[in-house]
Amino acid sequence: MQQLCILGSTGSIGESTLDVVARHPDRLKVYALSAYSRMERLAAQAAQTQAAVVVVPTEDARQRFLEAWSAGGAAKPPEVRVGEQALAQTAAAPEVTSVMAAIVGAAGLPAAMAAAMAGKRILLANKEALVAAGGLFMKAVAQHGAQLLPIDSEHNAIFQCMPRNGSGLMEDPLSHGVRRLLLTASGGPFRATPLEQLDDVTPEQACAHPNWSMGRKISVDSATMLNKGLEVIEAYWLFSVQADAIEVVIHPQSMIHSMVEYTDGSILAQLGQPDMRTPIAYGLGFPERIDSGVGTFPLSGLARLDFQEPDLRRFPCLKLSFDALREGQVACIALNAANEVAVARFLDRKVRFTDIPRIISAVVEDAVSHAAGEPSSLEDVLALDRHFRTVARQRCPSRS
């Protein structure tokens, strides 16, 4: 019986995780849940799963949770823990065997690191753990005997197509015949939009992903393809390959989630419906496969599979990501921090869609020119993250 801690349970990944968990009461049990703002939903989830613990960010959130719990008419509430430290302690708690790391942004990094240092099975859906602290995070996983399973659909697909060593990620896939990793991308809602129209893109248009139902921030990242750039950086750390062995290909149908090419010319691809329950179930059941609730794949209705190279004029954030990866960890921290600030400003209609790569570029350039060595601790990473967020806010133009 796995005892799960689901970090970010009210988000789309958290909700999908709970859907899979509910299908397997004989092997999966929820120990702890966390949420940032949706206290009513968290109370409903806690009542449904009989979670022993919930973690919330503030005392005000704690009060709102308890009010929601009382309104639901349930019995004794779970233990309510408050704050970032409590979140990390819960992820590392001895009762927990597996952690779903699904908090968006750098806020999820300390808890994911705590889970790694406690030797947990980590189902990683938080990009920042590797983008901002890849070296430190992978070192913690190795030193403390944690098991890392990628949940992002692209990395999970690559993981499924990789040669196996029986316990999880391989240390050196290139020595086992792997030639390159092919990350697929839908191209988002603006794959064919005339370039001159991108200045006037609205948040609503950017969040209208053609294939996936996602949160607002990650939907914008998909529209800029910054999300694919972050996935390139993740793949570098997860699969121990160099940047030159990672390629991105536009695949509008989102049916092939990624591919692995071998030295004999074979390409293995993982196909499936665009439903996150598939990679979540693979992670929860690994090394076995368990029911995800996803229906039969409609092969007979699949008329075509299209592929094309990404246009870096349309998607400058993708090039910025490759450049940051080659520059080192500090540049990657700057890339991620600047993007979070720029996307938030865009969603608040304070900058244009096309300002996002400009802001990121300026902050990464500043980071590269002033870098004083790689971060040696989580505290260093978080300090750099705060610094680059400040720089990004200063770089944001005033929209007229």
Automatic annotation (TrEMBL):
Q: Where is the DXP reductoisomerase C-terminal domain?
A: 271-390
UniProt-listed GO biological process terms = isopentenyl diphosphate biosynthetic process, methylerythritol 4-phosphate pathway involved in terpenoid biosynthetic process
> What InterPro entries does this protein map onto?
DXP_reductoisomerase (IPR003821), DXP_reductoisomerase_C (IPR013644), DXP_reductoisomerase_N (IPR013512), DXPR_C (IPR026877), DXPR_C_sf (IPR036169), NAD(P)-bd_dom_sf (IPR036291)
Where, by residue number, does Mn(2+) bind? 152, 154, 231
The GO molecular function terms of this record are: 1-deoxy-D-xylulose-5-phosphate reductoisomerase activity; isomerase activity; manganese ion binding; NADPH binding
- List each copy of the 1-deoxy-D-xylulose 5-phosphate reductoisomerase C-terminal domain by range: 148-239
Q: What keywords are assigned to this protein? A: Isomerase, Isoprene biosynthesis, Magnesium, Manganese, Metal-binding, NADP, Oxidoreductase
The EC number(s) this enzyme carries: 1.1.1.267
Q: Which residues bind NADPH?
A: 10-13, 126, 128, 215
The chemistry this enzyme catalyses reads: 2-C-methyl-D-erythritol 4-phosphate + NADP(+) = 1-deoxy-D-xylulose 5-phosphate + NADPH + H(+)
Q: Which residues form the 1-deoxy-D-xylulose 5-phosphate reductoisomerase N-terminal domain?
A: 4-134
Report the top EC class in one word: oxidoreductase
Summarize where 1-deoxy-D-xylulose 5-phosphate binds, as residue positions: 127, 153-154, 186, 209, 222, 227-228, 231
- Hey, which pathway is this one from? Isoprenoid biosynthesis; isopentenyl diphosphate biosynthesis via DXP pathway; isopentenyl diphosphate from 1-deoxy-D-xylulose 5-phosphate: step 1/6
* The protein's required cofactors: Mg(2+); Mn(2+)
Which NCBIfam families does the record match to this protein? Answer: Dxr, PRK05447.1-1, PRK12464.1
Function of the protein: Catalyzes the NADPH-dependent rearrangement and reduction of 1-deoxy-D-xylulose-5-phosphate (DXP) to 2-C-methyl-D-erythritol 4-phosphate (MEP).
Report the sequence similarity comment from the record: Belongs to the DXR family.
Q: Could you tell me what this protein is called?
A: 1-deoxy-D-xylulose 5-phosphate reductoisomerase
Q: Which gene encodes it?
A: dxr
